[in-house]
Amino acid sequence: MSQEQVIKKQEPRNNSAVTEKVNAGALSVNIFEADANQGVENLTQEDLALPFLKILGQLSPEVNKRDGKYVQGAEPGMIYNSVTGELFDGEKGIDVIPCHYKLEYIEWQDRGEGSGAPVAIHPSSSDILTQVKRDASYKDRLPNGNYVEKTASHFVIVLGKSPSTALIAMKSTQLKISRKWNSMMASIKMKGKNGMFTPAFFSHTYKLRTTQMSNDKGTWFGWEVSKVGPVEDAGIYQQAKAFAEGVSKGDVKVKHGESSENTQSEVSHY
Length: 270
What we know:
Blueprint: H1 3-25, H2 29-34, E1 53-55, E2 79-81, E3 87-88, E4 94-108, E5 120-123, E6 133-134, E7 140-141, E8 147-158, E9 164-171, H3 175-186, E10 190-192, E11 195-197, E12 204-215, E13 218-230, H4 234-249
Antiparallel strand pairs: 1-2, 2-3, 4-5, 4-8, 4-12, 6-7, 7-8, 8-9, 10-11, 12-13
């Protein structure tokens, strides 16, 4: 018998041994379940980062291979999770459940001049916009040199194999999309035992895609929102309701900064 024949006969036996070794080391889900929540009992919202869902643009650092923030496979028009680093195809889009909406006026210093965090966050009732003047770069400047961005924050549950919470911050050209989405949600009517009613925002699922937009100032990618239908999973509904209540009570902390800035810096005008 040749040496080549001996090797061929030995291969199946070796593969089987490897398979047996892998199976012997496999863990049952029951083991993980028995130790559920261990290690996370001391975590609070201060210890967690709420992901931002961002649309990547031509100038986003995540698409620049020479930038330290480059993400492999990232392309303009994709949707990016700022915490997990996950990328989503903008054309296919993602399914989300909107849970809470908040409008704020965020005051910033120019990039490179501050810590990267907002100087101040003014509520929707603030008269801060009466103090600004539009500059040549289409930013609303305060007398102190800082600029203010009207920001619409949509807190959502991102659906998938493992539903997770996230925040979508819309500003500038995307404020129009935000208003359209809000109108879409507010216009839904359902019939109950007491007649017609407007269900909670988190009662329905929406598809978020990205689309190319343009005006006489330039071209960029923006959001496109369409309604999918009512939430059908009771567990997901309760998760969305709990998240909505947490945000409303102030239990969910948002850390605006580089992760929430407009990643398409070629579009700061409208």
